[in-house]
Amino acid sequence: MIRVLVSILVIANLALLVFGLLDSGRRGGSSPPQAELRNPDRIRIVRGEPEPAPPPAAPMPAVRTAPVLVQSCLELGPLSDDEAARARQFLSAGGLLERTAQAPMMVTATWWVHVPPRRSLLQAENEVARLRAAGMRDAYVVLEQGDMRFAVALGVFRTEEAARRVADQIRSRGFVSVVVGRREQQIRLTAFYVREPSDADLGALERLRTAFPGTVIRTSACPEGESRPVPAP
After folding, report:
1. What are the DSSP calls for 69-135, one per residue?
2. Closest Cα partner for 96 from 119, 80, 118, 73?
3. Where do runs of H (alpha helix) occur along the chain?
C-alpha cells in the first residue's frame, strides 16, 4: 500500500514538472511587453496625405502709366530745294511759318535728265565743264560700271513732266544732246510739317500743293530728331 502511494506521489510530481515546463515554454514565445516610447514630442504620424500647399502670393497691383500723346501735324512733301524755297514764301505770307517745321524725306526718283555716255572720261569731264559754265552746277559724270558709264547726269526727278521741263530748258541753251530717261534712285528731299493745323490751314496747303506736282498732304505725327524750324525766306 505504501508503495502505491509513493508511486502516485512520484507520478504527480513528474506531471507537475512537465506541466510547469510546458507553461514556461508558452510564456517564452509570447510577444514582449511594448517598449517605452522615447521623445514622444518628436514623433510625427504619417497618414500618406500631401503637405498643404502654401497660400498663393497676392498679385502685384497694376501700375498705370499716363498715355503718351503724339502731336499730329499736316505734312506737305516731298519738296525739292527749289520747291521748298517757294513754299517758304507762301507759308510766310499766310502766317504759318512759325508753326512749321521741316525734316528730310527719302523718296525714289524714277526719271533723270542726262547727256548720253561719252567715249571717254575726258570727253565726259569736258561736257560737265561746259554745262557748269552755262549755270548747270549739278552736272556730274556717271562713273559706275554699265551702259551709262561716262554719261553726264543733270538731275533726277519724281515725275516725267518735271524731267522733260528741265530738259527743254537745258536744250534751249544749246545743249541739244540732252535726253530724258528712266532711272530709279533714292534721293533726299524735304517735307514741311504744320503743327496744330486748322481747317483753314488745310485749305491753304491744298492751294500750295497744286503748284508742286507730285507732292501730297496728309496727317502724320510731328517729326522729331532731324526736324528744325523752317527759316524765313
Report:
1. PPPEEEEEEEE-HHHHHHHHHHHHHTT-GGGEEEEEEEEEEEEEEEEPPPSSHHHHHHHHHHHHHTT
2. 73
3. 2-28, 81-93, 121-133, 160-171, 199-209
User: Would you tell me the crossing angle of helices 199-209 and 81-93 to the nearest 10 degrees?
Assistant: 140
Domain boundaries, the chain: 72-229
Q: Which three cell numbers stand for residue 131?
A: 554745262
Least confident of 15-19, 119-123, 129-133, 157-161: 15-19
* Residue linked to cell 501735324: 73
Using a cut of 0.70, tell me whether the model's pTM lies above it: no
CB 180 within 8 A of CB 116: no
What is the average per-residue pLDDT within 160-185?
93
- The answer to whether the CB of 76 falls within 8 A of the CB of 90 is no
| Short-list 115, 110, 128, 109, CA closest to 179 | 115
Strands 216-221 and 152-157 come out as unpaired
- Cβ 179 vs Cβ 148: under 8 Å: no
Span 115-136, pLDDT tens digits: 999 999 999 999 999 999 999 9
Look at residue 186 and give its three-state secondary structure.
Answer: strand
